[in-house]
Amino acid sequence: MKLKKGFLVVFEGIDGAGKTTQANLLRDRLKRKSLDVVLSKEPTNSMYGLKIKKLAQGERSSTIAEDEYNLFINDRKVHVANTIKPALQQKKIVILDRYYFSTMAYQGALGLNYQKIKEENELFAPVPEIVFLLKIPARLGIRRIQKSRNEEPNLFEQEENLTRVHKIFDSLKENYIVPINGAKPVEEIHNIVMNVMDDVIDHYLTKDEQYTLFNHYIKAI
């Protein structure tokens, strides 16, 4: 199916909220609908993203919050230029597992001004059509990390820090943010996501594609 234009969908939330699971489910579902989809995540595997991942595993104490933030900005600039904008220009649906809202929440929890982070990122990073914000308590996120990943939380995932991160996520009220109770069963969350996505996709389909889908639906009745 062809879209009038590409659009950007983001999954956000604290560690353990289920973002990766839902991003993968959405990608698979949309591909079954014959839509062009690109799934990506942040931090990326750019030189900046790899440094961020290394910091998360134990070297964070040697880096100040501003320097860490600059790594996120540089990583995102590479991501936008090489992946996000080209896919949008090709009229694809781009699904992201984390975006600048995570930077707002996590770096904001370290004391940086998260509204300023938003403004700085939106100077170069496309604003999403939809942000699915999966909301869970910090303690549940940590339990999920320990159980599903069979690992101890890294320095970005400690409970006190995740609680501050959660509060910032909770304060985001943009009209494109769709809050979802991340403690619900996986399939129930996916159904909520698809109910929203079906409406958006219908809006972005060309008239010819809408006509084809309508006729297909009528014949199926």
How does this model look, in words?
This protein has 221 residues and is α/β, with parallel strands linked by helices. The protein has a single domain (7-220), classed as Rossmann fold (3-Layer(aba) Sandwich). 57% of the residues lie in helices and 12% in strands. The chain contains nine helices and five strands; from the N terminus they run E-H-E-H-H-E-H-H-E-H-H-E-H-H. It has helices at 19-32, 47-59, 65-89, 100-109, 114-121, 138-148, 159-171, 186-204, 207-220, and strands spanning 7-12, 37-41, 93-97, 130-135, 177-181. It has a five-stranded parallel β-sheet, sandwiched between helices. Helix 4 packs antiparallel against helix 5. It is globular, with a radius of gyration of 18 Å. The protein starts with 6 loop residues before the first strand and ends with a helix. The model is unreliable at 210-221 (pLDDT under 50).
**N→C terminal distance:** 21 Å
CATH superfamily: P-loop containing nucleotide triphosphate hydrolases
Mean pLDDT: 87
Major beta-sheet overview: 5 strands, parallel
Overall spatial form: globular
What gyration radius follows from the Cα positions, in whole Å? 18 Å
- The topology string of helices and strands comes to EHEHHEHHEHHEHH
Q: Structural class of the secondary structure composition?
A: alpha/beta
CATH architecture group name: 3-Layer(aba) Sandwich
Report the CATH C-level class.
Alpha Beta
Uncertain parts: 210-221
How many DSSP E strands?
5
Looking at the structure, the CATH topology is: Rossmann fold
Sheet with most strands: strand arrangement = 2-3-1-4-5
Tell me the fraction of residues in β-strands, as a range: 5-15%
Helix content: 55-70%
What is the number of domains? 1
Number of helical elements: 9
